[in-house]
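Protein in question reproduced for absentees:

***
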Amino acid sequence: MVNVTELRPGNYFIDEGNLYRVEDILLNKTAMRKMVAKVKVRNMRTGAIVEIARNSGYMVENIRLDKKQMQYLYDTGDALCFMDQETYEQIEISKDRLQWEIQFLKGDEIVEITAYEGEILGINLPAKVALKIVSCEPAIRGDTVNKPTKPATLETGLKVRVPLFIEEGEEVLVRTDNGEYDGRA
């Protein structure tokens, strides 16, 4: 058990039966009142981000998640299949749990699977992934004011805005936290 005021971003804990990851924490202490911790958390089962407020002295159960490197193999239609590189054990994770992550998986990537007591919570992607552009509009001559960009569709179906000099068939780096163009691969 740990006091809620001792939590830091990246910590995992259980409160009222929910499994949370701390995204941000703000400690507020006024003159005649106990310290209040406003904790911005992500529910690891639903993916929802909420803010909870607890008084100093409130105890939560601090936990550690199991993390394992696995290779993405294929899409079964309603789930994604991953394989452990050491034991060759395969697991399937429902597409409903991986709506955001699917946009960055093209096949054979190594990802980190997170689990808690055997319950698979999701996957952690690398900070950036290299994806090939399958279609984009040609640049319009003279359209060069305020960092011009054009829409592009990547091999996974993700649509991003890229600079005018990027052409169809090139590989670009895309950030997995917000889905934006980051540079050439």
User: Anything to note?
Assistant: The two ends are 45 Å apart (CA to CA). The mean pLDDT is 88. Residues 74 and 117 are 25 Å apart (CA to CA). The domain at 128-184 is CATH 2.40.50.140 (OB fold (Dihydrolipoamide Acetyltransferase, E2P)).
